[in-house]
Amino acid sequence: MPQSPVIRAAYRARAAAAEIAPLPRSVKDDVLLAIADALEVRTAEIVEANAEDVARAREAGTGATVIDRLTLTPERIRAIAGDVRDVAALPDPVGEIVRGSTLPNGIDLRQVRVPLGVVGIIYEARPNVTVDAAALCLKAGNAVLLRGSSSASASNLALVTVLRDAVGGAGLPADSVQLVPGEGREPVRELMRARGMVDVLIPRGGASLIRTVVEEATVPVIETGTGNCHVYVDAETDLAMAVEILINSKAQRPSVCNAAETLLVHQDVAEAFLPLALRALAEAGVTVHGDERVRELAERVDSGATVVEATAEDWETEYLSHDIAAAVVDSLDAAVAHIRLWSSGHTEAIVTTSQAAARRFTQLVDSTTVAVNASTRFTDGGQFGFGAEIGISTQKLHARGPMGLPELTSTKYVVTGDGHVRGGPRPSR
Amino acid sequence: MPQSPVIRAAYRARAAAAEIAPLPRSVKDDVLLAIADALEVRTAEIVEANAEDVARAREAGTGATVIDRLTLTPERIRAIAGDVRDVAALPDPVGEIVRGSTLPNGIDLRQVRVPLGVVGIIYEARPNVTVDAAALCLKAGNAVLLRGSSSASASNLALVTVLRDAVGGAGLPADSVQLVPGEGREPVRELMRARGMVDVLIPRGGASLIRTVVEEATVPVIETGTGNCHVYVDAETDLAMAVEILINSKAQRPSVCNAAETLLVHQDVAEAFLPLALRALAEAGVTVHGDERVRELAERVDSGATVVEATAEDWETEYLSHDIAAAVVDSLDAAVAHIRLWSSGHTEAIVTTSQAAARRFTQLVDSTTVAVNASTRFTDGGQFGFGAEIGISTQKLHARGPMGLPELTSTKYVVTGDGHVRGGPRPSR
């Protein structure tokens, strides 16, 4: 028998997954409602554990923003419980017939959604991910192995304790929800190499975490990558709309993956658009990293914008701050070429009044999302109507873009005959 | 600029993929028809190159079966060309709207199928895979990088030359189809680590190849794994049907992945069923590796069957030969437990007259395919009506079971608004 705590946890998760996979939605929803209630009832216990983490973070000199992300208040716990109840209200993807037909020989073929099995989530920062991810995984019939940030270890332990008690109290195996045990990097490495026991890994966090997991894991990974998103303003455009979409994409919430990081402007509209854009960006407190043509125009305009020189690094940088790279391009195709070269493949927006331009941009751009006359900020499971989101995948296999409950499932085929055999006569029954 | 031939080939493939991704079906079909014609016109050239490979194999003392798989005759080339024309006749998955809706705020959301991009195929043996894989990839708008067996190197080079000439002659980039250059293992290793340039790897071959690729690749892999398939004969069953399905699953074509490798028999029907099964297996020339209860019964019956003792190794072995492991189980749930422990997750069949048993088995078994009263041999893209098959995936992400054209695609979202921004008023337009 394997001795490692991580492998033993994976075995327990596998056993739990086998038990919960066939459960109907009503049973799973009852568990989620029990979880929501338990979170509210045991708020004091969670807040107390969280206070330990916050105190440790303060002693370590952690910045105020990070401490705020780490902090769980009774209000926040109530909101988290509300989110769990929302997941209970969502349709169950498990059991959906994706496709079906009767084959020429009379066999009935069905492709049906099934749980993935054991989902591993490796995440940084906010402890509410512990609950959100567990709720989504359970709803889709999966067991979950959670590896959070060490800075939130007491909070995550308290939350998982509450989750496990609620799950077990509702009659399901408590091991449907587990923390990955052990300190340091070795447990994470074992988790990443546990192919066959863990069905998928979803890393959520910074580029460094994602890269490590993608490179080292033998377990299939869903890459939730960076968002080096672009806004392209076409020659034929509505100037006012372009400014609104630019500012919303960049500055409404700069620290998230669907915030725009680069502005591309068709040369034919640069003279008319850039002055408006620079002024608006200045008002929004955004520093512009401009190419030669942008800088040249900025010098002739009194916009109040801070404009610095863009280097190659700027084109590939996800600033996540009040900064934007900006360039004038010769054509729509040149914009597409720039995007192909530099984009992380998350979201690219075009603002245009030309139907042909919208169509061409949409055809040629290969990212998770192409936005036409809309902000890049809409790339979001909630905005897409999914009801919940486990992350935004920037890879092409299995899931691409915002991921909801169906992305936490696999499928299987069910073939039903009357004694059908290959190469034989069709049964007369 | 990177110097490696493999990386340069990947860059060329990427550029070709960008060019062919937006092409409509009619253009792609014309290319496929040109390929089919070219294969027929240049048959002599292909046969001549193939003769080199066959001669080398003979000198190396290669067995007759393998040499036969390696051999390309004019008839076989004609059949391959016919398969390419069949692919041209299939629907194009690219451009399919997977789902779409109008969001509450008026934004139109569409999820549309797009090519994966650059597909890498690493394969052993049969040179027709060179053409089949290229045709399927092209149809789905992908560029393909092919790495075949060194034993078929001259054949594959000749085939790819014909393919590239046909593709280029039809006005598409010849680099849509390339062989991975270079000798030995290093080019394959580079291909496997070319994440970001190659979008997916599909290894087709023996367990050792699959394992190497799965463990070493950073490029996403679709695992086409082994088929340790099971036939379970339930307490309530049609004995004659069970014998037919058993023999067809095991012996109709033992060397393929969807052939059955283990028979499980409910104890309540063992006395009635096993004598019939053993006689039929004996007639089919199949050696039975039986557990204690199977062997005990076999001794009391004059079946003519060769029955040897099964060890733990037998339960996990994919024989691909005239061998089958056999055990008597206490119950349906015991059969499911055995399958969970030993199966490679390919195909499991139940033969039963009980609707409840069929339902329970179908719910509890987690493999690519569950067959009810049908042979395991139906797990096949052609049989499922896909028109073509790139392989059978035994993994859970992206594709599971027989893979057709849609599995060679990804998706992207298209979000269309009228100037919509997050947190802002809905545009009045």
From TrEMBL, chains A, B:
Pathway: Amino-acid biosynthesis; L-proline biosynthesis; L-glutamate 5-semialdehyde from L-glutamate: step 2/2. PROSITE patterns: PROA. GO terms for molecular function: glutamate-5-semialdehyde dehydrogenase activity. It is found in: Cytoplasm. It is an enzyme of class 1 (oxidoreductase). Pfam families: Aldedh. It catalyses: L-glutamate 5-semialdehyde + phosphate + NADP(+) = L-glutamyl 5-phosphate + NADPH + H(+). Residues 6-286 form the Aldehyde dehydrogenase domain. Keywords: Amino-acid biosynthesis, Cytoplasm, NADP, Oxidoreductase, Proline biosynthesis. Its EC number is 1.2.1.41. Belongs to the gamma-glutamyl phosphate reductase family. Catalyzes the NADPH-dependent reduction of L-glutamate 5-phosphate into L-glutamate 5-semialdehyde and phosphate. The product spontaneously undergoes cyclization to form 1-pyrroline-5-carboxylate. This is Gamma-glutamyl phosphate reductase. It comes from Streptomyces zingiberis. The lineage of its organism: Bacteria, Bacillati, Actinomycetota, Actinomycetes, Kitasatosporales. The gene is proA.
